[in-house]
Every structure is written in C-alpha cells, then in structure tokens.
C-alpha cells in the first residue's frame, strides 16, 4: 500500500478524537462539543475509506474477488 503512513496518521488522529469523546463523556461536557467531535471522527473515517479505495489492488486481492 502506497500511502500506509498517511493511513496510520489518520488512524492515530481518529484514536485521539475517540479519546477526547471519552473525556467529554466523563466530564459531562455539553452535547454540542460531543457532536463536534463525532463529526470529526466521521470525517476521518470517510477520509481513510477514500484513501484505501484510491489504492491499486495487489495481485492477491484481485485473485480473491
């Protein structure tokens, strides 16, 4: 996979957003701040999907289809 480091970076950012969501719940912050973080998480998931889908298939992946 060409953009392995980019994907790992996006996953690390997603992980930090999830940690922040846990903090928001534990400290009972406003629902609005929770929604903002959820939006960030959803956007990161979409970015990761787009990156993966733009990658060429390896011969092994093509044979499994």
How would you describe this protein?
This protein has one domain (4-54). Helix content is 82%, strand content 0%. By secondary structure, the protein is mainly alpha-helical. The mean pLDDT is 89.
Order of helices and strands: HHH
Secondary-structure class: mainly alpha
Number of helices: 3
Low-confidence stretches: none
Largest sheet: none
Distance between the termini: 18 Å
Overall average pLDDT: 89
Shape call: elongated
Helix content: over 70%
The whole-angstrom Rg is: 16 Å
Number of beta strands: 0
Counted up, domains total 1
Task: Give the percentage of residues in beta strands.
Answer: under 5%
Which short descriptors sum up this protein?
3 helices; mainly alpha; 65 residues
Provide the fold topology.
Elements: H1 4-26, H2 31-54, H3 59-64
Helix pairs in contact: 1-2
Short note summarizing the structure:
This protein has helices at residues 4-26, 31-54, 59-64. The chain has 65 residues and is mainly alpha-helical. The two termini are 18 Å apart.
């Amino acid at each position: 996979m060409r953009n392995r480091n980019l994907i790992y970076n996006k996953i690390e950012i997603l992980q930090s957003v999830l940690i922040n969501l846990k903090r928001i719940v534990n400290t009972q912050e406003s629902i609005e701040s929770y929604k903002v973080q959820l939006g960030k998480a959803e956007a990161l998931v979409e970015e990761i999907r787009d990156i993966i889908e733009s990658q060429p298939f390896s011969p092994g992946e093509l044979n499994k289809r």
